[in-house]
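ARCHIVE ENTRY
Sequence with per-residue tokens
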Amino acid sequence: MKPYKTVVVLLVLMLAGAAANAAGPFVWQPLRVPLSSDLGGLEALLVRPSEPGRYPLALIAHGSPRSANDRPNMTPLAMLPQALEFARRGWAVVIVMRRGYGGSDGGWAETYGGCDNPNYVAAGTAGAADLKTTLEFLSHRPDIDATHMIAVGVSAGGFATVALTADPPPGLVAAISFAGGRGSLESDRVCRPDRLVEAFRAFGERSRLPMLWVYAANDHFFGPALAQQFKTAFMGAGGSVDFVGAPAFGDDGHGLFSPSGVPIWTPYVETFLQQENLTMTATPLPLPPPAITAPEILGANGQKAFAAFLIDAPHKAFALSPDGHFGWQTGMRTVAAARAGALKFCQQSGKTCGVMFVDDAAVGQ
């Protein structure tokens, strides 16, 4: 597996419409996607190959944490490794935070109500509205080919992506859902799964775009049997799905669409895009080699953890004790939060630890 992160050592915050920041084979630009009336805007990050030109657009939609307290801490950077996999394949990619997540305005719009009487159709439709707004906003950029756009979502973002295909904007030609669903409050428990199946049926009645769905065998949010019910309901109502039942992944296959899952999920995506005549490059652009190497003091488990740290999302930090004990934190909204998280994990056994690496650089004590 190749490392990912050298391309994001320096992220320069810019206003929407300002020139994109370039480093190596990719450019990126933080954006605000304006919402209607006085609601403000959505936080987003655009990533694309650095060569000038017009690129097809892939939108990436995040999931929803089980705890509401985690929503404000979410960041587009947490899905940068996934975005780079599409950028490597010739796509411009926008990662957008829907209303109520991260730095986006407008208040949380995706509630489905109580667990005993959930309205999943309303929740999916609200999420889809933000995705549609984002695609329509970016379709006017001179570096975007708005006739070839796809949407890619995971978990709640996958569910919103399914809903989006029931009311797609012009130029949306295909969509991908990884572990799509809503209503999982704890492992292997979903609020009124019958209502969720009916929501998939409702979206299938109007969805006619080709879709790829991927669910892992050990998904503890939406297990294989329930995923099959989603498929049957959606396709029975008229929706189009290429369904992939992926093998077990880690402790919970719900996390398959992740940096460590890249070797598994990218072939599924490539096959689907080829089938839909959406392959943009014969060979993916290479990712730069890492700027840092693992400390020699790390044992086998530490070396494995550091390899995972290298490919994971910023902001991130890796802490180490003099005897080789370690802790790390990735995908945080700020460097300070990443440092604090890494130290907390490293110090769990009463060790004296220091942060040795932040994002892709070694740091002083």
